[in-house]
């Protein structure tokens, strides 16, 4: 057990999918896992372990934001020995050619968070995905004909902004979409020498203002889950 997870040692697999929403964790376990067992209920942050195509795999909700998700990612790595961490989240598009329901693979994660100022002072660390996981995920998505974009994303500390147009500066530099966790995940993966990838489905659009419902966010976007699970096959 760790402070925020009440799983026994060994109860969580080396590969863990990480949605922000704990109910998406339950949906993933019930839809994709064989014999899922709930391994966590502390704070309602549900986590499950089962098998997928015969391989052990876990899913753990992380909550919203870098601060919450880094707690779970830290404990998964240091207390449970997790080695392949794949975030599966929703994001808001910054680009007109990145549409609602498209998949985005986050090759890198820019951020407005202070997490890496705390670590590196005025120097700038570039949080990046594991190249092998990224390549596998891209190949799988291509083979299945899923519309997929690969590039730099924004991990923001805030969902609501006083000035919503501030996103345009990031869009001008090619940032594809905004979410709230990947930069923390990639930084911790680098520190601990484990593999990490963030796979996102576009749930809303900052340019066109198109949105999806909360039910759709919780229950759908299964193409992204398939990509994540198949990319992790054979890693353990
Ligand atoms: O759908 P999830 O994984 O929660 O991800 C996105 O959705 C939340 C905001 O609504 C933030 O956590 C953001 O990163
Ligand atoms: O962080 C997020 C997630 C989804 N959509 C957004 O606009 N921001």
Overall description:
- With 236 residues, the chain is of the alpha/beta class.
- 33% of the residues lie in helices and 27% in strands.
- It has helices spanning 22-32, 66-80, 115-120, 131-143, 167-172, 182-192, 214-219, 222-232; strands at residues 15-18, 34-40, 47-52, 55-60, 84-93, 103-111, 148-155, 177-179, 195-205.
- It has a 5-stranded mixed beta barrel.
- The longest helix has 15 residues, at 66-80.
- The two termini are 22 Å apart.
- The structure holds 1-O-phosphono-alpha-D-ribofuranose and uracil (URA).
- The site of 1-O-phosphono-alpha-D-ribofuranose has 10 residues, from strand 5.
What does this entry show, briefly?
Keywords: Glycosyltransferase, Transferase. Residues 16-228 form the Nucleoside phosphorylase domain. With 236 residues, the chain is α/β, with parallel strands linked by helices.
